[in-house]
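Chain A, query sequence.
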Amino acid sequence: MRILFIVQGEGRGHLTQAISLKQKLTSEGHEVAGVLVGKSPARRLPSFFTEKIASPVFSFESPNFLPTAKNKQANLLKSIVYNFTRLHKYIASVLYINHIIKETKADVVVNFYELLTGLTYLFLRPQATMVCIAHQYLFLHPDFVFPKLSPISLASLKFFTRVTAIGSTKKLALSFRKMREVPSEKLIVVPPLLRQEVLDATPHKGNYLHGYLLNSGFSEEIKAWHKEYPQINMHFFWDKKDVPVEMKENENLTFHQLDDSLFIQYMAGAKAYATTAGFESVCEAMYLNKPVLMVPTHVEQACNAFDASQSGAGAISGQFDLDILLDLSERHTPNKAFPHWVKQADWLIMREFRTDLLMDEMPAPALLHRMLTNWTGRLGRYLPI
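Chain A, predicted structure.
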């Protein structure tokens, strides 16, 4: 099959999931013809992604959360106003997505939670079959337990999630644990998509704290805490613009630009891990037996953090209170079932990409189009040109 990825590019989670899935698909003989990445002008695409995905990468402008003035928590009202003023750009992005789907002649589109993909299928109805994959699709599961948040916020989150999946034949919900399928939602629960580099890493307990900051404003909290505990060695990763690849505050505190191999190396040897509650890196920490401090920046991450805490990942906080993390590093008990669940990912996810399954679920016009394409292609082998 020819497959096109469309990836929501905020943070590193969906990006690393795309790298992992490509590894699995190509090992089965499928071709990833291209990768579309939705991003905002406020963020840049990490160089590790373009190097490791090893397929043509196209970018387009996509709606995104904007941080507050201090570049910490997401500012919902500001984000809504900002995205509304850029509506004309998002319309152009929808047209561009449809164009790339046609240009790459994709049989299947894999959507990593990108809103504009759902809108493309709503308004332009591409022929390619769409499969959605992300942890967020678990929010549509009737057994998912939400934290105590505003009903309006949760309803908005579910609505947003449904819009990303308009036109999909199935939704693969990445989960910390096994849960039942929900046929009425075309929802299949699968293990996290961890890359081979993570699975091959050898964990050990070092003498430093490790972390990832989605919004660089949280670095002020890290620096303030470090003044109280200057003897603690810390390595934090961010995607802050216009700073060196490695920025040393002093001999015991270093900020690194996102480098995924280096990130995993530091994760494997860390004492504990602090993050803004993205799903992927929490899974990596759990797989490598690291306790996690989770500091959500918006409602989606608050749900991620609550779900992770139910699976024994660690603790939730409103700020980077690393006292909590130091305490966790001494008393945390890893979830022993989690690595076994992760190791089932290959067959549980890849079975959903079998051609016969996708063709069984394909809409009739798309199925007819594929059959005609395959038939004329085979016929062409025997006819003179």
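The chain has two domains: 2-195+344-380, 197-341. The chain has a mean pLDDT of 88.
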